[in-house]
Amino acid sequence: MLYREALNKALDEVMEIDDTVVTLGEDVGLYGGAFRVTEGLVEKYGEKRVIDTPIAELSIVGNAVGMAIGGLRPVAEIMTGNFSLLAFDQIINHMAKLHYMSNGKITLPMVVRFPQGVSKQLAAQHSESYEQMLSSVPGLKVLSVNDINYAYHAFKYAILSNDPFVFIEHELLYNKKGEVNFAQQLDPFKARIVKEGENITIISYLKMVDDVMQSVSAIESALNCSCEVIDLCSLNPIDYDTLAISIKKTSRAIMVEEDHKTGGFGSQVIAWVAEEMFYTLDAPPLRLGGTDTPIAYNRTLELASIPTPDSIAQDIIAWGKKNDV
Amino acid sequence: MLYREALNKALDEVMEIDDTVVTLGEDVGLYGGAFRVTEGLVEKYGEKRVIDTPIAELSIVGNAVGMAIGGLRPVAEIMTGNFSLLAFDQIINHMAKLHYMSNGKITLPMVVRFPQGVSKQLAAQHSESYEQMLSSVPGLKVLSVNDINYAYHAFKYAILSNDPFVFIEHELLYNKKGEVNFAQQLDPFKARIVKEGENITIISYLKMVDDVMQSVSAIESALNCSCEVIDLCSLNPIDYDTLAISIKKTSRAIMVEEDHKTGGFGSQVIAWVAEEMFYTLDAPPLRLGGTDTPIAYNRTLELASIPTPDSIAQDIIAWGKKNDV
Amino acid sequence: MNKLLAEEMYYLMTLGRKFEYAAKENYMKGNVSGFLHLDIGQEALSVGAIKAFEKGDVFATYREHVMAIARGLEPKAVMAELFGKVNGVSGGKGGSMHLFEPSRFFYGGDAIVGGHIPNAVGCAYARNLQGSEDGVMVIFGDGATNGGAFFESLNIAATHKLPLLFLCENNEYAIGTNIKYTAPFREQAKKAEPYMMTLSVDGMKAEAVYETIKEAQKLIEDGHGPVFVEAFTCRFEGHSVSDSNSYRSTQEMKHCKAKDPLVHFKKELLERWMCSDKELEKIEKKAQTMVDEAVVFAENSEEPNAAALFEHVFTEEV
Amino acid sequence: MNKLLAEEMYYLMTLGRKFEYAAKENYMKGNVSGFLHLDIGQEALSVGAIKAFEKGDVFATYREHVMAIARGLEPKAVMAELFGKVNGVSGGKGGSMHLFEPSRFFYGGDAIVGGHIPNAVGCAYARNLQGSEDGVMVIFGDGATNGGAFFESLNIAATHKLPLLFLCENNEYAIGTNIKYTAPFREQAKKAEPYMMTLSVDGMKAEAVYETIKEAQKLIEDGHGPVFVEAFTCRFEGHSVSDSNSYRSTQEMKHCKAKDPLVHFKKELLERWMCSDKELEKIEKKAQTMVDEAVVFAENSEEPNAAALFEHVFTEEV
Ligand SMILES: Cc1ncc(C[n+]2csc(CCOP(=O)(O)OP(=O)(O)O)c2C)c(N)n1
Ligand SMILES: Cc1ncc(C[n+]2csc(CCOP(=O)(O)OP(=O)(O)O)c2C)c(N)n1
Ligand SMILES: [Mg+2]
Ligand SMILES: [Mg+2]
Hints:
The complex is a heterotetramer, with 2 copies of chain A and 2 copies of chain C. In chain A, helix 1 runs parallel beside helix 7 (about 150-160), helix 3 (about 55-70) packs parallel to helix 4 and helix 8 crosses helix 12. Chain A has helices at about 5-15, 40-45, 55-70, 90-95, 100, 130-135, 150-160, 210-225, 240-250, 265-275, 300-305, 310-320, and strands spanning about 20-25, 50, 75, 110-115, 140-145, 165-170, 190-195, 200-205, 225-230, 235, 255-260, 285-290. In chain A, about 70% of the residues are buried. By secondary structure, chain A is an alpha/beta fold. Chain C has a single domain (about 5-300), classed as Rossmann fold, CATH 3.40.50.970. In chain C, strand 3 (about 135-140), helix 6 and strand 4 form a beta-alpha-beta unit. In chain C, helix 1 crosses helix 11 and helix 4 packs across helix 11. Classes of the chains: A alpha/beta, C alpha/beta. Chains in contact: A-B, A-C, A-D, B-C, B-D, C-D. The interface of C and D includes residues 150, 158, 159, 181 and 190 of C.
């Protein structure tokens, strides 16, 4: 099953059992979604529940908030992360706050989902990552999904939850293949240990988990060590318990993310490591992220601006040599 | 001179010498600005250069971008930080990127300024802080100003620069009194050492600098130590050099900010400290920030959700005792 | 409109006016804080519209005390909210600008100008899907009609023929800026004309407002899709209690106050519905008692406890 | 329109068409990547509008190659940009969607639907303040007319009577979604009617487009404030090269292609301007040569060097 098919299946199953679930967004109907996540749904559930919206992101989220107030469970798709900026007022001032401001009287069972990140030469207005902004907003639960099995279960969970979720995907993961264990009971807020190891904890999420995994054997042989790789899965809340257990074991923590390094999501993780795990650390923590430059169209520049399996291996090996790993 | 008068004077002087400078925003004209920063300017420069805009934040910034393309130097006011979310697409997708995407052909000499933060019981949709989001955007220079002298010089610098600036103010600073040294040559990107000290480096910015200063004597007597207090002034770029010198001296770093702690701006600073100053540190770094809750209207809850001089002193003293300061 | 309803509306308008003055007084005393936007001068509009739109959902702005009360929210729970107390409609967390009562289908209280309009559109979509007969009414100021959220909503509501009543309270000001600086014409209904039927009404006359909203509601029920109603009105006070109102001349204010909706409606009651002075006095007294009780209730209500800070961030903590 | 201009426009339309096919071919070969939005079928509109709006600033979308070339940007510099090369108009950093040439007052190339419209408004404001006679033209699709940025711009441009020409290319599709799902009517000019004069034109006819834009420009020069022009058109290809266009039936595509603007304009040239086949052949050849040279130029141009990544983030580094 492809990643996008897992999401499609999750949504389809929930729409089947609960007819308050609707999905809305640009081209989600007949067209099947820009990345085909909603394929086949309009044929099955009709235009009233699979809603092709105008290009009006503020309204996509704002309407979803109102639908939730009115008793529906909307799943709003924004075509690409960069366009979500147009909806930031609705996401942050409304979706995240109405439950609190109303002292719990209003509940917003809803999901806003979008793909983000560097795909292939889509240039600066189509390639950014906004998890650092959204995961810092109190009142939003933010999931960001590398694994297909996890994607299926976590997405379903988010749709059926009574809290507002932001579900962040990556353009380059949609065609990833994998298995879904439909019977599994999965806690979507629990980090996933992708690979166990003894000497370095490498923390990542979304697409970068795959890049990290590709770099691991080079790192392990160069530093003669073993790496534990953790996929955060949930960005808000963060599963600090799993991180703490791992770092206690390894005494070393590295964060790898695709976003511009300055102020990236990983700074929260590493700041937490520094505050809470300081006496456990045998080496300074390391953060790998993108350069602080808008994303360029040219492929060489584009790739030079984000971590790649090669650059990850190189940077971690250099860090390891410098810090006696 | 009041803080808001210093800003007013800076803008007035620049408008006087350069008639490409215009200012736009809601109520900036006849009304003189919600916080009176633009008072008297429409009378002096007319409605064409002091532009009362509709309540349309996306356009306020979007028009400013176009004015800059057209050869003006716009200073756009957004009434309150929370409303800036409506303009995030223009700030991040346009203002920050056009220079880069055009390979330098388009330049955007412009400033977007707004006040933010917890004032007094303005509730969740009028009290937030967004410097962590905006200072992580490549292509924007972000200043956030505690000091009146600094405010005057830095604001002037920003207006006259050819780069796009976000200039973040705080609602509770506008009536702060102080002196401006008009003759001074001030580097707006240099952090300001507010108070020298030997044992702890406390880093802050904007209003929190004042709260930190109020807490310092309690901390110093309780821990029998001396604190160095640094006002960052510029949030992007960050003056890491000044921080490094201080932390090398004190071996301890604390970050105090008003924003919700999770993912707050300070996480970037502390992550940098952990990565770059690890071997210098004698104690885990500490971050103090607001709770991860939307801002409540009730005054007690509101104050409980952000650092105050008392809570800062308490938290730092507790940290100091625990870590043998 | 029959006499009973007219009296009820007069009661609500009087209650609203007195409530607002009491709120202002308590702001001056320091019991109420933050932004306090008074509806004084606009009561005919708030009460007329809410009473006419009996069923269905209502989305309002930050200037919503009177609407909330007309909708049936208890004045004491509204006042306690202004005081930031735990018995306030939003538990003291929302304050003046954020009054919510889903059990009365009232989601007043958005402080982002125009931000609640897309929410109302979404709710109307839900009602449509659910096959409900009752539509949604969304109330906003003239200042909101220049923002993208409003325009997107016109388009979407018209495209889906949603049961949505757009009610624009045109008081010609957005804080201190007159509408002539920010829109090309005074009548904001023009903006809705390409999309839907529009009606306009003198917002200082309670009965006219009531009838116009009823007419709009009927159009919606008859399947005409969304309807836009513009009501011209005038606020007597500054934008909020902290605004000195210095941008409006004495002349302009005099002209404005000459149209006092309470004075006008009282005259109607006396002349057209043959109410006696005594009857009206009784109503006014009842309103005063209600407000006095509300203030006492708010004063005596508790502060939220410290734990409240962390409650209701989510429905379930992880 | 005289023969000389007609021939020039035919040249530009032919050049545009051939350029787009060459771009597509090079996309298939892997020389061009990212999103590549072709203008094939819409050349009469792009060329007619740009040639008519000779002076003044132009803001366009991501579907802007042909406009850029008509504006005088060198085809080889545009092709090199598509190749991501250092001699591209944006140094290889922008790509197909981000072509900028301030020296030709061309700021085409915004990839946020509707995002450039407020920028054009601001530029028109600047031109007004500077007392310039030349206005600004902003070009956008039918899909952009549902977004808040567009609406806010109508209001602001009308309020300030800005010298701004709104040009809507209505091809009835936003990616794969037909306009009937997202707007209550097909004619988007209706949305502008409350604010400004509107004109509409068959966008498949180069001369009609040219004349209509000239007329609009005249209205703006005469101080009528902003003008809205809607041109109905049809794109022959998918939304971008990676879109299979499966949502449009063979029937619909046949109908659409029957209106080929090149075929139509060629016929006009032969019949009305008495051009000879030979003259037109010469023009077509010249266009082909230009495109061939552009491809060779792009192929031979260098990649940007590694340092380019960090250049032009700011005008001055701190
Ligand atoms: C998006 C946004 N921008 C600005 C503000 C600040 N503000 C609050 S009320 C107001 C004026 C609104 O005027 P109008 O819509 O006419 O309503 P009225 O106050 O007249 O009832 C403004 C600008 C805000 N709350 N939200
Ligand atoms: C704000 C935003 N939302 C969504 C998109 C994705 N997108 C790119 S083009 C497009 C369709 C635009 O249609 P239209 O405006 O009619 O222009 P056309 O492609 O037909 O020329 C969409 C939805 C985008 N680029 N920007
Ligand atoms: Mg108003
Ligand atoms: Mg289109």
